[in-house]
């Protein structure tokens, strides 16, 4: 084997050149990889002994795409286009041998090869859309030529990783080879191609599919319409579709030009910058500076969940889904039965939608055992407490858990706001206590806020972070403070939303502005959905707040057909004259003068205090880095992905602007808007949140 450069080797076996890439972690198309590919193909072409070329990768995966870290910098080395031209125009067959994932630019390179073979566990996809981009190396023009416009739209706007078997069925892969024997299989395939004298298949020359698609221009708008809700606010899905339309309607090279132009537009816009940032932010959040990678882990083979309510049930499902047996303990039999039956219904609903087989439903249910006896937690490795949010109850439970659970077990609370140091203080092992704050519905929501208390041990933190990944969650480590990171910031938005309504904005005005910003719904629609009576006690209600009055009128949200909004029988919301009147009466009683409030003010009043609170959280060390706060808000609170997160958004619009507004609001409305010293300092130094080191 001869080295072409630091990341590429070339060897020749029996007339077949094997070009091997080895650029950990994911063989991304860095300058070195591109150079290696261009040189390697050139050498193979020049060698008369070579009859065909196999392109294969070492490590965990085939090329996983362009090197995202290079985006925005000056290009070095061979361009991807040059590499692809060298491969596609090579007069000897080039075969991509795929394992792991062939993604983005990786699949686009494979699509310039004349043939593709893969092991059954491999997956292919064009996930650029998730980075706010489109495949910019010919993928938008080549993929539809193999799979047709409809399938290409589905793949490119979802970014899905398609399993090799399906790739084979749709012609994206030519042959599957035995798992674990990719190199041998690819070599055998290459020999077969040479022996049979098969032609050099260039995807760019395939026109059958696009010609057939040309007769059905309606598929594009139908697809847009069917996915309008999902794509709302995002630019990239629409740009991907336009490229596929170009592939269908224009000659290959003209289609490529459309692709290039739209790719550059996306690349220079803020949405892609935000989405690329989020990709790294999620991965960064898994890294805890004082908890190194080699921290010993606690094996978690069995889990206990205390409480079979909505939260407890959802939490239990996460573990069962990952194959971990769970014991759920409840106080009363009927509550336990109800909880278990809700879990079953959830699984059955997934099965009806095709997400699980009947057998898988039973297999998951068999992993969940119900019990009325907390002593059944004696042998589990982790307990997650998910009962009523009251400190006295939690303390009582943790005293019992401390007595029951084995040494070394992790004792976790799902509290969303209570002081975990105080909970831990009742145990003789505060180092084993941690917060695992799941979000409702816990089996669906991606975020897990992992709350580190004063004494939580490093192995408990490391184990919780790893476990989060295992059960498919995106975790962020936060510190103990009221509401932790997510709810603490939410409280800022909520306060301003409520105040705005008492100054003259209507709930639907506030909701509309936040919905247009990109949230899935505004705070008032959200309250109606959750139920206005959560935490409301009839006997104590004195009509002092808008919520009190609405609940007293039995306007408790969607479930009663009315809340802030009125609802029709299909739960469609309409602004409510009743609510409007109540609000006006409230304002009149307070002696205030209602005023016209601009959309701009609504947005600034709701968003800037969130950014400011994030700064305070960083100052107090309750989050490790600004991007962790963004991970929390994107994955737990519906912050629009294409706006990065509150901290990224603050950087984007300019911290000086945020600071100036906060000062203006402080002068008019007081203390609550007081800028955090960190915000002041960053502005004074001309820095951003992203300049802060973890
Ligand atoms: C593209 O191709 C554009 C072209 O169409 C046009 C060009 C003109 N670059 O996720 P993991 C790092 S856009 C640089 O934890 P896993 C990642 O940050 C690209 N770095 O592993 C992490 O680093 P660290 C289209 C990358 O096994 C490490 O690799 N492709 C890249 O759970 C491990 O990552 C994509 O969007 C990259 N492209 O999952 C694919 N990818 O260890 C993006 C990863 O320092 N990648 N890193 O934190 C993925 O989806 C997953 O990483 C993958 C592996 C499934 C491959």
From TrEMBL:
Domain 3-hydroxyacyl-CoA dehydrogenase C-terminal positions: 483-567, 602-687
Every 3-hydroxyacyl-CoA dehydrogenase NAD binding domain range: 302-478
Pathway where it operates: Lipid metabolism; fatty acid beta-oxidation
Coiled-coil intervals: none
Cross-referenced InterPro entries: 3-OHacyl-CoA_DH_NAD-bd, 3HC_DH_C, 6-PGluconate_DH-like_C_sf, ClpP/crotonase-like_dom_sf, Enoyl-CoA_hyd/isom_CS, Enoyl-CoA_hydra/iso, NAD(P)-bd_dom_sf
Record family assignment: Belongs to the enoyl-CoA hydratase/isomerase family.
Entry protein name: Enoyl-CoA hydratase/isomerase family protein
């Amino acid at each position: 084997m001869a080295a072409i450069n630091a990341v590429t080797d070339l060897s020749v076996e029996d007339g077949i050149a094997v070009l091997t890439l080895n650029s950990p972690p994911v063989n991304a198309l860095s300058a070195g990889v591109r150079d290696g590919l261009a040189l390697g193909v050139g050498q193979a072409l020049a060698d008369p002994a070579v009859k065909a070329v196999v392109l294969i990768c070492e490590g965990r995966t085939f090329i996983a795409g362009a090197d995202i870290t290079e985006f925005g910098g000056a290009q070095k080395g061979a361009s991807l286009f040059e590499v692809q031209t060298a491969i596609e125009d090579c007069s000897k067959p080039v075969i991509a041998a795929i394992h792991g994932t062939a993604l983005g630019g990786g699949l686009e390179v494979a699509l310039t090869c004349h043939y593709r073979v893969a092991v059954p566990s491999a997956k292919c996809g064009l996930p650029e859309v998730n980075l706010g981009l489109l495949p910019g190396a010919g993928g938008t023009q080549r993929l539809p030529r193999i799979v047709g416009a409809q399938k290409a739209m589905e793949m490119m706007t979802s970014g899905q990783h398609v399993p090799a078997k399906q790739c084979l069925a749709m012609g994206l892969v030519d042959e599957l080879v035995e798992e674990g024997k990719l190199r041998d299989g690819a070599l055998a395939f290459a020999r077969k191609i040479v022996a049979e004298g098969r032609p050099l298949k260039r995807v760019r020359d395939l026109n059958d599919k696009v010609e057939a698609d040309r007769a059905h221009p309606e598929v594009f708008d139908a697809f847009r319409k069917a996915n309008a809700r999902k794509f709302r606010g995002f630019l990239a899905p629409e740009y991907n579709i336009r490229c596929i339309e170009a592939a269908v309607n224009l000659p290959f090279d003209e289609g490529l030009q459309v692709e290039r132009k739209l790719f550059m537009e996306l690349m220079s816009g803020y949405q892609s910058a935000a989405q690329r940032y989020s990709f790294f932010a999620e991965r960064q959040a898994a890294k805890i500076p004082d908890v190194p990678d080699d921290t010993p882990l606690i094996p978690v083979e069995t889990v206990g969940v205390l409480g079979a309510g909505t939260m407890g049930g959802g939490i239990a499902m996460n573990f069962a889904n990952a194959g971990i047996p769970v014991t759920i303990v409840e106080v009363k039999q009927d509550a336990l039965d109800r909880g278990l039956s809700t879990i079953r219904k959830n699984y059955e609903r997934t099965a009806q939608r095709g997400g699980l087989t009947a057998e898988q439903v039973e297999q998951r249910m068999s992993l969940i055992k119900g019990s009325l006896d907390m002593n059944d937690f004696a042998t589990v490795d982790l307990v997650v407490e998910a009962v009523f949010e009251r400190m006295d109850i939690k303390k009582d439970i943790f005293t019992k858990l401390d007595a029951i659970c084995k040494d070394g077990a992790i004792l976790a609370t799902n509290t969303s706001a209570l002081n975990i140091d105080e909970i831990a203080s009742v145990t003789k092992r505060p180092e084993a206590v941690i917060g695992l704050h799941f979000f409702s519905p816990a089996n669906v929501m991606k975020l897990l806020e992992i709350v580190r208390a004063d004494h939580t041990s490093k192995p408990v933190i490391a184990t919780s972070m790893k476990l989060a990944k295992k059960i498919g969650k995106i975790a962020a480590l936060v510190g103990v403070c009221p509401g932790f990171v997510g709810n603490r910031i939410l409280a800022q938005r909520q306060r301003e939303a409520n105040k705005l309504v008492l100054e003259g904005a209507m709930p639907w005005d506030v909701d509309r502005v936040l919905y247009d910003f990109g949230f899935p719904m505004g705070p008032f629609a959200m309250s109606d959905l959750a139920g206005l009576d959560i935490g409301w006690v009839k006997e104590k209600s004195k009509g002092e707040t808008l919520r009190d009055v609405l609940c007293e009128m039995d306007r408790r949200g969607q479930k009663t057909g009315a809340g802030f909004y009125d609802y029709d029988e299909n739960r469609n919301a309409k602004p409510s004259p009743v609510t409007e009147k109540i609000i006006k009466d409230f304002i009149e009683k307070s002696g205030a003068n209602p005023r016209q409030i601009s959309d701009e003010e609504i947005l600034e009043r709701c968003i800037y205090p969130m950014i400011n609170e994030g700064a305070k959280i960083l100052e107090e060390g309750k989050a490790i880095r600004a991007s962790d706060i963004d991970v929390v808000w994107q994955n737990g609170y519906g912050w629009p992905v294409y706006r990065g997160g509150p901290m990224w958004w603050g950087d984007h619009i300019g911290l000086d602007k945020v600071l100036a507004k906060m000062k203006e609001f402080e002068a008019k409305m007081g203390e609550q808007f007081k800028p955090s010293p960190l915000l002041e300092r960053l502005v004074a130094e001309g820095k951003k949140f992203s300049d802060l080191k973890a």
